[in-house]
Amino acid sequence: MASFGLWAFAHFWNAFGALIVTALHVGLAVLVTMHVLLHKRDVPAAIGWMGLAWLSPIIGPALYWMFGINRVRRRAYRISRRYAARRPPPPPIGTLRSEKYAALERAVGVITHRPTLAGNTVRAMRSGDEAYPAMLQAIADAKITVGLTSYIFAADEAGTPFIEALIAAQRRGVEVRVIIDGVGSGYIFSMAVFRLQRGGVKVARFLHSWLPWRMAFLNLRNHKKILVVDGQRGFVGGLNISAHNLKACDPRTAVRDMHFEVRGPVVEQITEAFVTDWEFATGEELRGLTWFPQSPPCGPALARVVTSGPDQDIEKIEFMFLQAIGSAQRSIKIITPYFLPDERLVAALELAAMRGVDVDIVIPENSDHRIMDWAVMAHIAPLLIAGTRIWRAPQPFEHSKLMTIDGGWSLVGSANWDQRSLRLNFELNMEIYDHDFSALLSEKIAARQGTEITLKALYAQPLLVRLRNRAVRLLLPYL
Q1: pLDDT at 472 (0 to 100)
Q2: CA 95/CA 438 separation, integer angstroms
Q3: Is 411 helix (H, G, I), strand (E, B) or coil?
Q4: Alpha helices in 172-251 (DSSP H)
Q5: 55 Cβ partners below 8 Å, 6+ apart?
Q6: Helix (H) / strand (E) containing 273
Q7: Does residue 10 have a pLDDT over 80?
Q8: Predicted confidence (pLDDT) at residue 93 exceeds the cutoff of 50
Q9: pLDDT digits (tens, 9 = 90+) for 350-366
Q10: Percent of the chain beyond pLDDT 70?
Q11: Which of 293, 311, 350, 338 is nearest to 475 (CA)?
């Protein structure tokens, strides 16, 4: 009788436990479904998350909680709202300062909620050999403030002079703030962070945490490259701080890049991008004339900063790409180290080529990520069919991110043409309305046009190579 009672209790407990687990699974799946329906715009992603929640009990909802919820947007929105309130609204279409590109200027103003600012000069510099000395001199000349953001900050032949210059500036009374990405410069340990902190410099590791429930942020990276000095001089572009960017170091994995020194009123927008990231990372608000002095006009260029990231700025750079492509009448020139745009951008480029616009895209002969190179080769056939020309830049690895439209509008900055830059990374680009500057960038892009990729060569690849490339392309949202 006792054994029967134990059997009955065990049977009841198993049935009750199964009921509890089932109820928990259904409850969590319902919560995930409700959250997805309210917050996910991308239909395939929404269907995927809901399917995972229903078909993978407990595990599916846990994965969604860790990786599917954008936790950075609300905090970033609170910070950016204060700065957005200080900006003037975009001017009416009849008062825009760029006549030929008025529609593009207006659209980007609506996208970014920032005005174009006149009176700027932008100086192009090639790789670390030209850019690092100018940046180090600016830090040495700093009297009030220095703000620096870098995705990669190596404590090597290139990084050590920056570490020493920043510490020296701090010691002579300059307010120095440095943001280093929590993954790009080493997640376990960053020698640059260690040396800067030991020298008294305030450093923030962007979205870096040892807490397990914050590990989901590892996929969100600050890819910006910013230096602002005294609110008067800015440096932006694609250049990290590493010996790979110096010819003198003769690195085995050399990198060629473009960086830009900026003077004029638009430096205030660069500073704003830095201080909002600093507050996001540390909670410290940097404000007042110390960081935002008046920058008098000093050149002919009309310019505006465009930021993007998985926060309040999501998709802004992609929307700007789409608007610029749609505005093109004669030419589109692009150079990028990684070219894996989504179907919207591919379709926009195809349509531009079909309507007679000369579309030239330059990608590296070999990048620093072989899997990316394989995926690119499976991604470009529709563009070639539409009439786009795609070129390989010969070694060394070309890391520049440049774009020009019709010889008068240019874009420089940190964003690549891939899903990571357009959806996951925090990025900073700058648009410039200036014919002379656009002509210079167009020449730089054309100079790197090596071998042209043809459809014949693409289709002549061995079957196993094409299968490999197409299989890797399925990772497009994560590359």
Answers
A1: 83
A2: 23
A3: strand
A4: 191-198
A5: none
A6: helix 267-282
A7: no
A8: no
A9: 999 999 999 999 999 98
A10: 83
A11: 338
Q: Which two tokens stand for residue 188?
A: 């376990």
Give the helix ranges, DSSP H, for 343-451.
Answer: 343-354, 370-377, 381-386, 419, 435-447
Residue 146 pLDDT exceeds 90: yes
Helix, strand, coil abundance in the chain, percent, nearest 5: 50, 20, 30
Percent of the chain scored above 90 by pLDDT?
A: 52
Sequence-ordered list of residues with C-beta below 8 angstroms from that of 23, at least 6 positions apart, any chain: none
Q: Give the contacts of 185 (CB within 8 A, at least 6 positions apart).
A: 150, 151, 152, 153, 154, 192, 193, 205
Residue closest to 479 by CA, chosen among 372, 400, 373, 398: 372
User: Cβ(191)–Cβ(161) under 8 Å?
Assistant: no
Region for residue 407 given its phi and psi (left: phi exceeds 0; alpha: psi -120 to 50; beta: otherwise):
left
Q: Residue 317 class from Cβ within 10 Å (0-12 exposed, 13-18 middle, 19+ buried)?
A: buried
**Residues in Cβ contact with 25 at an 8 Å cutoff, skipping those fewer than 6 apart:** 57, 58
pLDDT band at 370 (very low <50, low <70, confident <90, very high): confident
Decide: helix, strand or coil at residue 255: strand
Residue 419 and residue 219 in contact, taking contact as beta carbons nearer than 8 Å: no
DSSP state of 117: E
Q: Are strands 301-308 and 427-433 parallel, antiparallel or unpaired?
A: antiparallel
- Look up residue 378 and give its two tokens: 């499976």
β-strand pairing of 226-229 with 202-206: unpaired
- CA–CA separation, 70 vs 309, rounded Å? 11
Find the mean pLDDT for residues 378-390: 93
- Residue among 116, 103, 93, 102 at smallest CA distance from 305: 116
379, 216 contact by CB (below 8 A): no
Structure tokens at 352: 């531009």
| pLDDT at residue 87 tops 90 | no
What's the pLDDT at 168?
97
Which residues partner with 333 through β-bridges? 360, 404
d(CA 182, CA 200) in angstroms, rounded, equals 19
Name which of 86-100, 232-246, 264-278 the model is least confident about: 86-100
d(CA 351, CA 386): 8
Phi-psi category of residue 264: left, alpha or beta, with phi > 0 → left and psi -120 to 50 → alpha: left
Contact 362, 402 (CB under 8 A): no
For residue 42, give the amino acid letter: D
Alpha helix positions (H), 208-359: 267-282, 316-327, 343-354
Average pLDDT of 268-272? 96
What is the average per-residue pLDDT within 430-454?
95
Q: For 82-172, where are the E strands, in sequence order?
A: 117-126, 145-150
> How many CB atoms are located within 10 Å of the residue 75 CB?
14
Place of tokens 């962070």: 193
Does position 52 have pLDDT exceeding 90, yes or no? Answer: no
